[in-house]
Design goal:
By secondary structure, the protein is mainly α. The protein has a single domain, classed as YcfC-like. Helix content is about 75%, strand content about 0%. Helix 1 packs antiparallel against helix 9. It is globular, with a radius of gyration of 16 Å.
Length: about 210
């Protein structure tokens, strides 16, 4: 099991975990605070020793690994297809961010200002979500392609839900950048399916051990 595929798989799991929480809010009005906290906290890991450290440990992205596995083995699953569409757009957006030094600096400055609050995520969660949502709306929403989130209108309209969704999309962008840094590219998702699945199983077993 190569470290390259381990890193790419962890990054993809981070994307899917963020998008899974987006779907839970948009379709079911459900907040899994512990998993949302993991996604948001990943934005503030500036110099991690490993990809695993971005999320704390493998147990923290177990749902993301399972969602990623589902996307590989059941391509007709409606939720997996929806996440795949979101992910493609996020990957394209992350390239735009990577190539725009001014935008990258703007995002980095805002995150730096929130680092102290992020150290107490459970108590500061609402404040952090509000600020991250503002950052996404001001810096990311004007870019193409826009990520259009689908769900129940009654769940999408409350500002609290809309803010959480934007904050989670920002966390998904962070994981996309990690994936590219690990050498990921979109064609690799097609030709590397079996290696990704083997790596997912390896990481899930590691989490249990």
């Amino acid at each position: 099991m190569t470290s390259e595929y381990i890193n790419k798989t962890i990054a993809l799991a981070g994307i899917h975990q963020a998008l899974l929480q987006v779907q839970n809010i948009a379709w079911h009005d459900q907040f899994n605070e512990s998993e949302i906290d993991v996604c948001l906290a990943s934005l503030f890991q500036r110099d991690p020793d490993s990809y695993e450290d971005v999320f704390g440990n493998l147990a923290n992205i177990r749902s993301g690994l399972n969602a990623l596995k589902q996307s590989f083995i059941n391509k007709r699953d409606k939720e997996a297809l929806e996440r795949a569409r979101y992910m493609v757009n996020l990957m394209m957006l992350s390239k735009n961010i990577k190539n725009n030094s001014q935008l990258s600096e703007q995002i980095g400055t805002t995150l730096s200002l929130l680092e102290e609050a992020a150290e107490d995520m459970p108590q500061q969660r609402n404040y952090i979500i509000e600020r991250l949502a503002q950052l996404y709306q001001n810096a990311i929403s004007p870019l193409n392609p826009r990520v259009i989130v689908y769900g129940e209108p009654a769940n999408l309209q409350p500002e609290k839900n809309a803010a959480a969704i934007r904050a989670l999309l920002l966390a998904g962008l962070r994981s996309c950048l990690l994936w590219y840094q690990a050498g990921g590219y979109q064609f690799n998702l097609l030709i590397g399916k079996n290696r990704y699945l083997a790596t997912i199983d390896h990481l899930l077993e590691s989490d249990l051990s």
